[in-house]
């Protein structure tokens, strides 16, 4: 008698089809599957992590003390309170996850970055001092660093540099300036990794949390 063909499991075929479909979506949309943790004998399902977009957060430093040496001016009491209120607002609305925090060499920028990082409960290892972020620096020299970013990033800087940087990223031109960030204002831009075009997500002014 002719040999009986092996019986195929419908469930196994369906599982193979679904896995193939997921792999196709991952390849097309630039996704990654997170590692699979184990808890006892139970296995937690893998989680898809989307890497298709990058967010850039631009934060102007909080209000600083007056002084002759501009680079050494620390935050005043009102400025420190503004940073604390901003952190509370961001935490309560889950608007910002733990991200690298770049700041300029000026004391008021460094202090704003440090206080916000601490209030958000992030590691101080997230902090990084960067050149090219001072008030009169050209945004054209700093923009390539942002364009190469593959993960969300927070930049704490100054005006008019931040406004020009945002305008350049959105339009390709630093002038005319589209934004003038008030002290402790936070601007969020986003771009798709594949397309590379920056878009405005939201603009948070201090009047919303003070």
Shape: globular
**Mean pLDDT reading:** 85
The end-to-end span amounts to 86 Å
Strand content: 15-25%
- The total beta strand count reads 10
Give the low-pLDDT segments.
32-44
Q: Topology as H/E string? A: HEEEEEHEHEHEHEE
Count helical runs.
Answer: 5
Describe, in plain words, how this protein is organized in 3D.
The longest helix has 20 residues, at about 10-30. Strands 7-6-8-5-9-10 form a six-stranded mixed beta sheet, sandwiched between helices. The chain is globular and about 80 Å long. Mean pLDDT is about 85; it is low at about 30-45. It has about 210 residues and is an alpha/beta fold. The protein has five helices and ten strands; from the N terminus they run H-E-E-E-E-E-H-E-H-E-H-E-H-E-E. A hairpin with a 5-residue loop joins strand 9 and strand 10 (about 200-205).
Summarize the structure.
With 210 residues, the protein is α/β, with parallel strands linked by helices.
Give the helices and strands, then pairings.
Elements: H1 10-29, E1 31-33, E2 38-39, E3 42-43, E4 48-50, E5 53-60, H2 77-93, E6 101-103, H3 107-119, E7 127-129, H4 139-147, E8 153-157, H5 161-171, E9 186-192, E10 198-204
Parallel strand pairs: 5-8, 6-7, 6-8
Antiparallel strand pairs: 1-4, 2-3, 5-9, 9-10
Keywords:
single chain, 210 residues, alpha/beta, two-stranded antiparallel ribbon, 5 helices
């Amino acid at each position: 008698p002719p040999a009986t063909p092996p019986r195929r499991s419908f469930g196994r075929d369906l599982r193979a089809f679904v896995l193939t479909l997921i792999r196709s979506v991952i390849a097309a949309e630039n996704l990654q599957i997170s590692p699979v943790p184990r808890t006892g004998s139970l296995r937690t399902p893998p989680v898809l992590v989307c890497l298709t977009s990058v967010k850039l957060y631009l934060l102007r430093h909080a209000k600083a003390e007056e002084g002759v040496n501009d680079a050494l001016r620390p935050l005043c009491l009102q400025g420190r309170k503004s940073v604390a209120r901003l952190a509370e607002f961001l935490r309560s609305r889950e608007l910002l996850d733990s991200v690298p925090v770049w700041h300029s060499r000026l004391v008021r920028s460094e202090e704003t970055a440090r206080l916000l990082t601490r209030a958000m409960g992030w590691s101080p290892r997230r902090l990084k001092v960067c050149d090219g972020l001072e008030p009169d620096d050209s945004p054209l020299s700093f923009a390539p660093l942002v364009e190469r970013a593959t993960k969300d990033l927070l930049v704490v800087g100054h005006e008019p540099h931040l406004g020009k940087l945002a305008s350049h990223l959105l339009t390709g031109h630093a002038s005319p300036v589209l934004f003038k960030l008030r002290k402790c204002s936070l601007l969020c831009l986003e771009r798709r990794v594949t397309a590379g075009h920056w878009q405005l997500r939201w603009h948070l002014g201090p009047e919303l949390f003070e």
